[in-house]
Amino acid sequence: MSDVYGSGEFLYEHVAGWGKLPRGMRFLECPGVAVDSKDNVYVLTRAEHPIIVFDREGKFLRSFGQGLFSNRTHGLYVAHDDSLLVADDGIHTIQKFSSTGEKLMEIGQRNQPASRWSGQPFNRPTSAAIMPSNGDIYVSDGYGNARIHVYSATGEYKFSWGSSGIDRGQFIRPHNIAIDSNDRVYVVDRECHRIQIFNPKGRFITMWNNIHRPDAMVLWQDHIYVGELNGIAGVDDAPGLGHRVGVYDLKGKMVCRFGTPEEGEGPGQFIAPHGVAVDSRGDLYVSEVSYTIRGSRMETPKELRSLSKYRRRW
Residues 157, 169: contact at Cβ < 8 Å? Predict the structure, then answer.
């Protein structure tokens, strides 16, 4: 019998070997993962094939995006209409695609970043999401900014909010963004160990604290799933600091968390969660930047596991 992870109503079994690649393809690492309305799973990589698509059983379907990204692909989002948004902090853009890989739009000046901390879009954007009620695009920006930018569905700039700091409405590193059915905007503020929640115009509503370096986030039904990165430099090998996944209700109460205190590649272990997704059956997909965080720092650099699936037990 497989080991079971999680707690309460959120119990999972690890699916060994999920996501088989054709010969000659690799992930290197996977900064993002998302699921469409047909339970196809889109995996964002930092290798030669930037977006790889599997069915829910892990069968390879196709890949696309070659030549359109830097080696710093960062955030992946599947919208209500199955279109995709991809944030690339290496070329400072957000690109939009159809589910079949047709490029539909690009926001931002490619390879022309705004000045650091200027508040102008973009300086190393991290993620983007679409508000289903009006199609507006919300962008978290990012590594060289502390802002949220809002664009129309056709890519026209509308407004921004945020500044660097630790007060409400401020950010140290807005790293991921999500929007619920009530048009509330969730922003993971990674280095502040919190999630802040706003109305569509950027008015602060509330915040959830004490979530260790939240990296990834996805809303599914009446819960939000959060991936936590490992510790900061100097304590990045400390047990119990990140490399885990938590599930919260929409009032901020944690209902499940799993991931061993020590990082690893085994079942129930993580190294660097950076993307999370949930399919229609409640199965969980976790993508990791394991190469950046650990593999690239080994005496002989090594690709480590960066994608896993956990089947939910009902």
Answer: no
- Here the tokens at position 220 are 């599914």
The Cβ of residue 235 has, within 10 Å, a number of other Cβ atoms equal to 9
> Domain ranges in the chain?
4-209+289-313
- CA-closest candidate to residue 293, choices 309, 304, 307, 308: 304
* pLDDT tens sequence across 53-92: 999 999 999 999 999 999 999 999 999 999 999 999 999 9
- CA dist 310 and 213 (Å) reads 22
φ, ψ (nearest 5 deg) of residue 202 = 95, 10
On the CB side of 103, CA atoms within 13 Å amount to: 13
State phi, psi for 295 to the nearest 5 degrees: -60, -40
Contacts of 123 (CB under 8 A, 6+ apart): 92, 113, 114, 115, 116, 117, 141, 142, 143, 144, 145
What's the gap between Cα 260 and its chain centre? 20
Nearest to 81 by CA among 37, 27, 120: 37
In this structure, which topology does domain 4-209+289-313 adopt according to CATH?
Neuraminidase (2.120.10)
Q: Which of 283, 226, 261 is nearest to 18 (CA)?
A: 283
Type of residue at 116: R
Q: 106-146, pLDDT tens digit by residue?
A: 999 999 999 999 999 999 999 999 999 999 999 999 999 99
Q: What is the value of pTM for the model shown?
A: 0.97
Torsion on CA atoms 287, 272, 103, 178, rounded to nearest 10: 90
Q: What is the CA radius of gyration of the chain?
A: 18
